[in-house]
Specification:
single chain, 357 residues, Ribosomal Protein S5, domain 2, Alpha-Beta Plaits, four-stranded antiparallel beta sheet, 9 helices, 11 strands, galactose metabolism, ATP binding, EC 2.7.1.6
């Protein structure tokens, strides 16, 4: 029985580093996907081959954190997390291919986890809803791979829908579709890959999360979702700025949903600009390279632009009047080249479908 399953990468339209603070975010699934082909067998070992690395990696079905490293750790982590959930999976041969660029901030890791998870769950016929699947995939990344991400990436990959953004409330763990079809209003969504690769495991992501947790503890709240902005003077200057980003970003997500309800993409663009400034000045997760891309896009006619993803590299998204898309792309390419950075990869994209066979 051959099983095929795939899952998409994602772009977060707005709501960065809010997931582990029990706030709000508004991602879309991308058209680019990771594909898994799985042939189960009774061998008791999972043999995994991928374009990500050399030769097949053999993963024991009783694997534990630390045994498998590199890209295959994400696969092993899913096997381990499923077993923790009481679901024993079969061995077999698995082949993985992907259209989601690694390190670009488009969540290639969640696409990999969710595609592998879908194939393994299909092989045993387990009945898991998408929230449960997201938690299992997150556990694989957090506890096996060792990257302290929130649920945003997994939920976006699993719940994605064509022409829809996803309003995620991380306190209640609910997902609400929000129409997102800028093309219908003559507006293009540009995805600008800086080609500057980031690595969450490098410690900066974990440092931001720890800062938010310290601020919440000082303020006596379970998460920054409940924090009182007027009380931020009680925490250190750096932690206060981190918390201020989270609090203002949550409001920007809600405002963005309201603007999308009336297809007011000028208002959405202004919120994206404010979000980028907050990530640059308060959360300090952008780079001069990303700042240049966002500022150039806006100067050339974009309604708004912001870094998307965990930070320190990756992609910028821009909302651009359709007739200005080429002009904006050319301006960004020229500015980046003049600054000595790698040539960006600029594509026009849209909200795609979620994980599935």
């Amino acid at each position: 029985m051959r099983i095929r399953y795939s899952a998409p990468g994602r772009v977060n339209l707005i709501g960065e580093h809010t997931d582990y603070n029990q706030g709000f975010a508004l991602p879309i699934a991308l058209p680019q996907r990771t594909f898994v082909t799985f042939d189960p067998d009774p061998s008791g070992v999972l043999s995994v081959s991928s374009a990500f690395g050399d030769g097949p990696v053999r993963i024991g079905l009783d694997t534990v954190p630390g045994q498998v490293t590199g890209w295959a750790a994400y696969v092993a982590g899913v096997v381990w997390a499923l077993l923790n959930a009481g679901i024993a999976v079969p061995g077999g041969t698995m082949t993985i291919t992907s259209e989601v660029e690694i390190g670009s901030g488009l969540s290639s890791s969640a696409a990999l986890e969710c595609a592998v998870l879908g194939a393994l769950v299909a092989a045993v016929g387990a009945d898991l809803d998408r929230i449960e699947q997201a938690r299992i995939a997150q556990q694989a990344e957090n506890e096996y791979v060792g990257v302290p991400t929130g649920l945003l990436d997994q939920l976006a990959s699993l719940f994605g829908s064509t022409g829809q953004a996803l309003l995620i409330d991380f306190r209640d763990v609910t997902v609400q579709p929000v129409r997102f079809d800028p093309d219908a209003s003559g507006v293009a969504l540009l995805l600008i890959d800086s080609r500057a690769r980031h690595a969450h495991a490098g410690g900066e992501y974990a440092a931001r999360r720890a800062s938010c947790e310290r601020a919440a503890a000082v303020l006596g709240v379970a998460s920054l979702r409940e924090a009182d902005p007027s009380a931020l003077h009680r925490v250190t200057e750096v932690d206060a700025r981190r918390a201020r980003h989270v609090l203002t970003e949550n409001q920007r997500v809600r405002d963005c949903v309201a603007a999308l309800a009336s297809s007011d993409f000028a208002a959405v663009g202004a919120l994206w600009n404010a979000s980028h400034a907050s990530m640059r000045d308060d959360f300090e997760i952008t780079t001069p390279h990303l700042d240049l891309i966002a500022a150039t896009a806006v100067h050339a006619g974009a309604l708004g632009a912001r870094m998307t993803g965990g930070g320190f590299g990756g992609c910028v998204i821009a909302l651009v009047p359709g007739e200005r898309a080429e002009v904006v792309g050319d301006a960004v390419a020229r500015a980046v080249r003049a600054a000595g950075y790698p040539a960006p990869v600029i594509t026009r994209t849209h909200a795609g479908s979620g994980a599935g066979p």
